[in-house]
Amino acid sequence: MKNENSNNKSVGKQSILFQNPPCIISFSSVAGKKEGEGPLAGYFDIIEEDPMFGGKSWEDAESRMQKRAADLAIEKASLKSADIRYLVAGDLLGQLIATSFGIMDLQIPMFGVYGACSTMGESMSLASILIDGGYANKVIALTSSHYAGAEKQFRFPLDYGNQRPLAATWTVTGSGAVIIANPDEVKKNPEDDKPIIHITGITTGKVTDYGIKDSMNMGACMAPAAADVIYHNLSDLNRSADYYDKIITGDLGYVGSDILKDIMKEKGYDISKNHMDCGKEIFSKESQDTHSGGSGCGCSAITLTGFVFHKMLSKEWKKVLFVPTGALLSTVSYNEGNSVPGIAHGVIIEIME
Amino acid sequence: MKNENSNNKSVGKQSILFQNPPCIISFSSVAGKKEGEGPLAGYFDIIEEDPMFGGKSWEDAESRMQKRAADLAIEKASLKSADIRYLVAGDLLGQLIATSFGIMDLQIPMFGVYGACSTMGESMSLASILIDGGYANKVIALTSSHYAGAEKQFRFPLDYGNQRPLAATWTVTGSGAVIIANPDEVKKNPEDDKPIIHITGITTGKVTDYGIKDSMNMGACMAPAAADVIYHNLSDLNRSADYYDKIITGDLGYVGSDILKDIMKEKGYDISKNHMDCGKEIFSKESQDTHSGGSGCGCSAITLTGFVFHKMLSKEWKKVLFVPTGALLSTVSYNEGNSVPGIAHGVIIEIME
User: Fold this and answer.
1) Which residue, among B271, B273, B198, has the nearest Cα to B239 in the 3D structure?
2) How close A96 gets to chain B, by Cα (Å)?
3) In B, which residues are within 8 Å of A213 by CB distance?
4) pTM > 0.90: yes or no
């Protein structure tokens, strides 16, 4: 399985298996009002009714939301920000301003990352490498998106009341944080039956472009990138699709999820039984029509830190492949007639008792 | 020197020393016309007279420039893109579109990063971690900036002929690529006197905000972040400033460099003798008046891959602390009246014969 380009920790073409799998010691989910009215409402730590999060602009609102997610994750682990060696974070806004202004007060050395809506996967991948490689004992991975900030950045001012095609998704207002730690630091309480969530490996994506130019159908733009990562994860590690209890994409939505399953079938893998998409789960199709589902960095982030980790801690799911997906566009690239390529970042999350 | 938060590879509050220092096996510099008329012209691999780089927009021009830098670095190392395990790259444009479209054809698993003009330091830091940690044998770190693309993104259309204050810097058109490799793979030719450039450590920066709101004086915005990284590098590693032959900041320019030296003096370190700023070196003060100097991700990237590595390979400089600096702003954050915080990423580069 090893290729000539790899060494002891890398496997196949795009994957890594950690020798000393990092642990997730704390996580948090901050959701907006609409997300708090959806089917996952009961799983979020905080549901904020004020879309401004007490701030003075949409961007400020998103920064405050990120800060609350980070503070809460740190507090739940009984830590101080000075205990965290690195912060790996990013968001959808140009020049990552939600992150820059949100996390400034934490004063943690930072790696800013951009993977569009795949950011949670990218930040967790790099955070795990920092831990497994012995460069840090605790790292926080963090991301966010805000419906109004994203509409302002990528589409039209909300006041226009612009119509949206059926393939469009609804950007989630939410921020998720995960604290990843050296397993040697995590002492299991023998009287505690609670399992520990580990990150056992990653599969890193390439920019993948099928030439689709419709920014209102981002599911179609991103599905090939998700398929590439899932395919390489399974083939690099010589696993069948049913190795995982769930293969969880970020925000392909209804349209993109169908495309993903079709591409995977063409590649010889049937993921129709265990595939789940955060964009399809986070809003109710019946009572909260968002057309193709939810999207944004926050969509996969709070579905992971709310719903998915709950399922894992209750041992309902023990092996998860988390594959958030990003559409790589800006208003400039779109207006200049470019296609919308995609990228995805796979993170293998497993319960080890 | 170790703090409670650290383990065997991390040192002090913000630094890492690599146990098996990664090697720089190849590098490239692609410069624009104006940069090719400046004092460093003789050090660049390619000077392109066409500001469009054969493309159809400024963004397309920057993507093509990045592709040429990456291709050239790969070619100089007699490699193919499939030999490179990861690409760590980013640029100044919203949603990193110069990078996304530039590197797509390389089909290398990618970590997109954003550190504004500190991106070369951030990408080299993460690339070195991937190598030293045993996750890859070869990683390419890449960044770029384009004068016209940056003016369009951050300031005014060029056709306005906008006036610039004396504290303003001129965004460099340039792209630099560095291929970092596992030292076990690099066989020294005993008959060859050429030294090998290693990355021996890093010091990762925090978002640092002194409340400065003038985006036309980015040197002042970034100097505190540079000072924080240089201070922590020296104190974490218990080094005096003269340990380094050169302490090289990215694009503080004339105004920011003076502020940096003053802050460092207040912190008890005199760096006036060995400080160099890429923004002051890349354009001629006399014949190419750019006011405070050059800036942009490309400024430090091509000064490093052109001029600095030349000085190191000729053994004139053996120990360099490379500290590119970034100003964290977008037109949205600026127009909403926010300050311009800074970040810096320190990379320790040494000749080991």
Assistant:
1) B271
2) 8
3) none
4) yes
